[in-house]
Structure formats: structure tokens, C-alpha cells
Design brief:
524 residues, 16 strands, 18 helices, alpha/beta
Length: 524
């Protein structure tokens, strides 16, 4: 047995005597059952979703009771939980990769290891290395004159309690386990609702988590929309949701009933500025990498390009070359991911049909000239769209697939104005060597995060906060910022032995001390 599972094994041994007693009682019940009793009408068993909903409520109560009884959570306990989370991922990485590929119709083992397992393990290891330093009390300076007479102030970081995690299907492992680094480092318990669209991954989580964690520490709940809806209504101490903006609104409404604080990582249409000074070859390669990874099914994927009008052909050519270099073929290429299901495939085809009908030019990037229409799966080549406008659905909705619209501009200010006229995105990208133009783009736009001369990579920096703004999300996590998100910053003030109220004039009857304080603080 893995050392990381030792605590679970110990707890299982502790409940052994109780299980033996239950077994004896069961034997007696069987004997009673053999007697002749009048038959009762058979009762239908409740639907699975109702069973799961009842279990959620029970587990929440048990986790909160266990958390309260264990306060304060020892650093050694937090470290052990992080170790077990790492072991769960590393020891079953191949099983997770197979489950993801089966859910998608195809996704390479290497991509799942690179984009789900590795970031999760990296986040957990980073938290393990730093969480004790993050947990230290922060001294704050007592205001004048209180500090002069012995008063002290500090901030203490306490775990919040039970954190709910609602994960999406596009990175069904990473979007559970990356935030888990901050959740466990802060000393919380966790309840997880994976996406029903990646049911094999959800079932694998449900199977594996109990092997590494007792239910009072971490629990997984599977099921469809009904289970997810009820999960979002639970009175958690914090809830983190990753997914579509439209669903995020429902999550926030449900959480509001119990005043549950929420972190929403939503997405949106991340713009990619290509400046006139950009190295077009490198820009094309890097944009192609970000758009083709996971077949564009990434909340941070470049959603549309903003390129100089006189350089449009050159930029599009560079992207096409970048795709062709990485993916000489697509249908039988293990490195290229399938669109997750028929529903999303048809949604993307609908965007293309709508754009074409409204005047867009469609450029299919199909290096090997393969027949996608005759294939049985949901793989889809990259399609670049020229001549797009805001009447087209592809420019109204987050794409989440291998479609890349291109808008042209004459001045960088025109491109900036276009971005600012729309919802603030989760990511923003700028390619160029003009530092003044770069500064103008960054200073005059607002987004969750920025990568300069590449795409996606700000998300890979564990020391940077990750999150959106408004329609692209709220709150953030990763590294110390995640630790603070899942912690309660508790203010602690220690008064001196002196009668500060009287000395400062705060204590009635008001007199000379009161007037002196008012003159000093208000300038009178």
C-alpha cells in the first residue's frame, strides 16, 4: 500500500470493531426476516439522482462536523493530504488519460499528461513547498496613537471549512485538482462535482478518491444536471465553478441563497492583438499551438485575431504554416484532439454555416486534404474566418473549438476600442516588438490575465493569480492567491492595558480628550 494512503488505512482499521458489530446484528435481522410476516407493498427505490442528492447533504454535514472538531487543522495533516492528492494523480495517470480519451472520442495520452496531470501535480507540489509560509500570521501596524501605547494587530489565515468544486469537461482532471492545491493547503475539506459530459473521468474520480481520502476529507458526486443543480445550492463555506458564463449566472444565484462566497472561472472571447512589429512566423506558430491544443476547447484559447489590414494575408499564412508543421495530418493523428461530442460538433458547424451565410470567407486548414465529412468521429479541422462582423454568432459566443475569426484594423487604437466595446475577457494576447504599442494595449484594456508574445502561458505560472473580470469570472486562484481565496483572513486586535477609550475621548462623557482627537484627525 502506498504510504500516502496510510491515514485512510488507519481509519479503516479503527472502524473495524463497529463493522463486526453491524455484521452480528445483520445475522439476527436475517433470522427475524425468515419468520412469516404479512407481505408489504413494494416501495420503488428513489432515482439515483435523489440518492446522490441525499448523500451530498449528509456528507456536507459530516465534513463540517469533522472540520470543526479538528480545528485548528495541523500543518502535518495538510501536508499529508497534499501528498495523497499527488499520489492519486501519479499512480493513476494512465487510467485518467484513457478515461479522458474515451470521453472525448480521442485525446492523446501525452496531452492529458501535459495539460491535466502535470499542472495539477505542479500546483500541489508548489503549495506543499510554500503553504506553511503562506499560513503565517501577518503583523499589521496599529494606528496612531494605539501602537504607541502597546496595542497590536495581525491577520490570521484560517481555513474556511468545506469547499465545493464544480468542474468542466474540457480539462476534467486539472480543473478539479489545480484548485485543490489551494483548498488543501488552506486546511479545508472538499466536495467535488465533475462534469457529466466526461462521465468516465467522473466515475474514475468517484472510484479513486475513497482509496486516498476518507469521506470527511474529500468526496465526489456524479450525476447529471439535477445533481449539479442541487450541489450548487448546498451551504458550502466557499464554492468554485469553472465553466460557461451562462451557467455561472445560475451557480451564483443558487449560492446567493446561502450567501456562499464564489469563485467563478468562466471564459469569454480572448482577443489576440498582432502588432505591425510582430515576428509573423513566430506569432503564427504560437497562435496555431494555442488554438489547436485540445482542438480549441480551452477557456483561454485565442478566440479571434486583430491584425493590421495590410498584413492580414501574411498573418493567416503564418498560422496555416504553423498548423501544417505541427499537424501534417489530422484524422489519424494521435496528437490532435476530437471535439468532445456530437452536440458541440454541431454547434461549431452551425457557427460556420451562419458566418458563411452572412458573408464570411471560410479557409479550412486541412494539410493532408482528408475527408472529414465521411469520418465517424467528431474531429474537426481548423477553419479561419475572414470578413467577420458582430452579426455573426461566431463573434457573439465563446467559440470553444477550432474556429479562428480574423478582424482587421488600420490603427491599434481602433483594435483597442473594439475590445473595450465588448465584455472583458479571461485572457488577452499581444504580439509585437513595439514596447510603446504594447504598453498602450495593456494600459487601455482590462482582462483576467495577459501573455505577451505567446498565448495561454500566464495560466502556467503558479505564482500569478488566475481568474476573470465580470462576465469572464470573479475571484482568482493559483499559488498564494489560491491559498488566500480559500482562507478566511481574520483580523485580530490586542488592546493594551491602558484605558484607551478614555485617553482618546471615545468614552463618554465627551470632553477635552474628545475635542483634541477630533481636531487631530479632522484638522480642526
Amino acid at each position: 500500500m502506498s504510504p500516502a494512503r496510510s491515514n485512510v488505512a488507519v481509519r479503516q482499521k479503527q472502524i473495524g470493531p463497529a463493522m463486526a458489530l453491524l455484521a452480528k446484528e445483520w445475522v439476527l435481522l436475517e433470522k427475524v426476516a425468515k419468520q412469516d410476516w404479512p407481505e408489504r407493498p413494494k416501495q420503488e427505490e428513489p432515482p439515483v439522482s435523489q440518492v446522490e442528492i441525499a448523500r451530498m447533504q449528509t456528507v456536507l454535514a459530516r465534513q463540517r462536523a469533522s472540520f470543526t472538531a479538528a480545528m485548528p487543522e495541523a500543518m502535518s495533516v495538510r501536508r499529508d493530504r497534499i501528498d495523497r492528492a499527488i499520489a492519486l494523480l501519479v499512480e493513476h495517470k494512465d487510467s485518467f488519460a484513457k478515461a479522458v480519451s474515451a470521453d472525448f472520442g480521442h485525446r492523446s495520452t501525452e496531452q492529458t499528461l501535459m495539460t491535466d496531470i502535470m499542472p495539477s501535480v505542479g500546483a500541489l507540489k508548489h503549495a506543499k513547498k510554500h503553504f506553511e509560509a503562506w499560513s503565517r500570521d501577518e503583523k499589521r501596524k496599529a494606528m496612531f496613537p494605539l501602537g504607541l501605547i502597546g496595542a497590536k494587530a495581525k491577520v490570521v489565515y484560517q481555513p474556511k471549512g468545506v469547499v465545493g468544486v464544480i468542474a468542466p469537461w474540457n480539462f476534467p482532471i486539472g480543473m478539479v485538482m489545480v484548485p485543490m492545491a489551494g483548498i488543501l493547503a488552506a486546511g479545508n475539506r472538499a466536495m467535488i462535482k465533475p462534469s457529466e459530459f466526461t462521465e468516465r473521468v467522473a466515475d474514475l474520480f468517484a472510484e479513486l478518491v475513497p482509496q486516498y481520502f476518507v469521506e470527511e476529507e474529500m468526496a465526489v458526486f456524479t450525476g447529471g444536471v439535477e445533481v449539479g443543480t442541487e450541489f450548487s445550492k448546498l451551504a458550502f463555506d466557499h464554492l468554485i465553478f469553472t465553466g460557461a458564463t451562462s451557467v455561472g449566472k445560475h451557480i451564483m444565484r443558487a449560492a446567493a441563497e446561502n450567501l456562499v462566497p464564489v469563485t467563478l472561472e468562466l471564459g469569454g472571447k480572448s482577443p489576440t492583438f498582432v502588432g505591425r512589429s510582430a515576428d509573423k512566423k513566430k506569432s503564427g506558430e504560437r497562435i496555431a499551438m494555442g488554438k489547436m491544443m485540445n482542438a480549441g476547447q480551452i477557456c483561454l484559447a485565442p478566440d479571434y485575431l486583430l491584425v493590421p489590414r495590410d498584413q492580414e494575408d501574411e498573418v493567416i499564412g503564418a498560422v496555416i504554416k504553423g498548423v501544417s508543421t505541427m499537424y501534417p495530418s489530422l484524422l489519424a493523428n494521435d496528437d490532435y484532439t476530437s471535439v468532445v461530442n456530437g452536440r458541440n460538433y454541431e454547434r461549431l458547424k452551425g457557427y460556420l454555416d451562419d458566418a458563411k451565410a452572412k458573408g464570411a470567407e471560410l479557409i479550412e486548414v486541412n494539410p493532408a486534404g482528408e475527408d472529414f465529412a465521411s469520418s465517424n468521429g467528431n474531429k474537426m479541422p481548423l477553419t479561419i474566418l475572414r470578413g467577420v462582423n458582430d452579426d455573426m454568432k461566431v463573434m457573439q459566443e465563446e467559440i470553444f473549438g477550432p474556429l479562428l475569426p480574423v478582424r482587421t484594423y488600420d490603427t491599434i487604437d481602433e483594435a483597442i476600442d473594439y475590445v473595450n466595446a465588448h465584455d472583458r475577457p479571461l485572457g488577452l494576447y499581444y504580439f509585437g516588438q513595439d514596447s510603446a504599442e504594447e504598453q498602450k494595449v495593456l494600459a487601455r484594456t482590462i482582462s483576467g490575465g495577459v501573455t505577451v508574445n505567446d498565448v495561454l502561458f500566464h495560466n502556467a505560472m503558479e505564482d500569478l493569480p488566475f481568474g476573470g473580470v465580470g462576465p469572464s469570472g470573479m475571484g482568482n486562484y493559483h499559488g498564494q492567491d489560491g491559498f488566500k481565496t480559500f482562507s478566511h483572513a481574520r483580523a485580530v486586535y490586542r488592546q493594551s492595558g491602558l484605558d484607551v477609550g478614555k485617553m482618546s475621548g471615545f468614552k463618554p462623557p465627551y470632553g477635552k480628550e474628545t475635542q483634541a482627537t477630533l481636531r487631530r484627525e479632522l484638522g480642526k
